Amino acid sequence: MSTTIQDPIAPAVPAGEVEAELNYLRAGSPRPVSYTFEPPPGVPWTTGEVEPHRVRIRDARPLAALGELSLDRSGFERIVRPSALADFSDEAAIRAVYYPESEAILREATGAEKIVIFDHTLRDSALGSRDRSQGGLREPVGRVHDDQTFTSGPRRVRDHLPADEAERRLKRRFAIVNLWRPLATVEQWPLALCDARSIAPQDLVPSSLVYPDKVGETYSFLYSPAHRWYYFPRLTPAEALLLKIYDAREDVARLTAHTAFDDPTSPADAAPRRSIELRALVFWAD
Question: Which of 30, 83, 143, 159 would you label with 185, given CA atoms 20 to 30 Å apart?
Answer without folding.
Answer: 143
